[in-house]
Batch of 4 targets.
Target 1
Amino acid sequence: MDTTSLLAELRSYLTETFALVDAWFDQPVALRAYRPVDLGWTIDEVLAHIGLTNHYLLILIEKGTVKALVNTQGRDLAAELATYEFPSQKLSAIGLLHGFAWVRPDHMQPHLNQRSLPAIRQQLCDQLGQALGYLDQLPNGEGLLYQTTMSVNALGKLNVYEYVYFLAQHARRHLTQMQENAAETASNALA
């Protein structure tokens, strides 16, 4: 595996994803506050949920980064790299809205009365920096050396790089949700 290419792709994907999410903060208040017909989340609630979920995923990514670096002692990184193939196909399903049933824990339910929108926007900006920082700490493939179980969509064990990609894919999933809200709003305006 070419870690330089993988890390460049992960950095690019993270940066692009977070920029796309950030653009939703600049949408009109009425659009962001629109509650879809299916009583799903408003765009503001989706943004809060992304920040909340990122918070918990980044805790796992941070712990994984520390443990992966510890595991460089006594593990053959070259052997791990020689046989590793990034499972982008398996992880891409996370980015598909309605692609599978996703049971969300109650603690990831968005509550807009707990944080202001500017605070959520800043949180997401900081989270991008955190995720990129963890990748910077694992420049030679060390992220392969520790895995944590991910129960969502029965993914099983993911290494640190895969968790970072999961974080970005989760945001992509919700980008689609926000686009659906915007399309429904536009459709209602034409009716």
Note: Helices lie at 3-23, 29-33, 43-70, 77-83, 88-92, 117-137, 160-190.
Target 2
Amino acid sequence: MNVNVNQSGSLPVRVEQDVVLARQQARKIASEQGMRLVDLTKLVTAVSELARNTVVYGGGGDMDWQVIEQTGRAGVRILFRDEGPGIADTRLALTDGWTSGSGLGLGLTGARRLVDEFDLDTAPGQGTRITITRWL
């Protein structure tokens, strides 16, 4: 395993094209760390969903990423942050099939299932911060 824990960065996620760039960056980071293809695919899919939510529901924001090491294992941690309206009912938002728009309601719950760690920090009028981690 060739892990460089000093890697980190940030990308704006403000328009639809930024969703593609976020997905490409996640793929590049995970691939460089030697993440297995199935895990890499899950991470990239989660990033795609969360980046799209950042643009559509959060009004745009940023994706911060870093390669981490904790108790002898390495992983990729990605934070999506926006200053949008926030999520009024997180329990409802994390229910399969629920959507606040015209989507399928799989974004947050689907992303949560695809990663090893998922943390949602939001409140009405306070924006949203979602941190995901996928371990190698």
Note: The first helix runs from residue 16 to 32.
Target 3
Amino acid sequence: MQRIYEARDLLEAEMLIGMLANEGIETFLTGRHLIGAIGELPAAGLLGLMVNDDQAERARQLIAEYNDAELLPGDEPDGPVSYPGELIC
């Protein structure tokens, strides 16, 4: 297995796991149970997505495509955007 991505938070991790599952890629999430210890552990680097070696390249490609996605015209959020440059679902 290879660690292919470091999720920002549990919501992002679960969304990416679902996306990869739809593509037939089984994903294991490391660090899920460490989130409750934030404050005692470093806040970054706890959550990692891992996949089988033979699926790692495809999974990285799918995540890169997701991160590079742009909003469709008319799908812009109303009001100020808290995270410029990030896709809002």
Note: The chain is about 30% helix and 15% strand.
Target 4
Amino acid sequence: MADSLFYLVVAAMAAVVVALVIGIAGYGKGGEFNKKHGNKMMRLRLLFQFIAVLLILAYVYLRNQGGQ
């Protein structure tokens, strides 16, 4: 269980990085994309971060319970 959860944690962190890079690139470029999607990208990144933190906490909890 913990190994599959580890891969979910890695995927969630990768999603955070992708959303962050798209958001920063859109902000840097400016224009219509940033006006239309800038706030959505920030919210999406925050959602991905929240999910990643919950998965990390679950992973640490299960590892400490011996659920390898």
Note: Residues 46 and 67 are 29 Å apart (CA to CA).
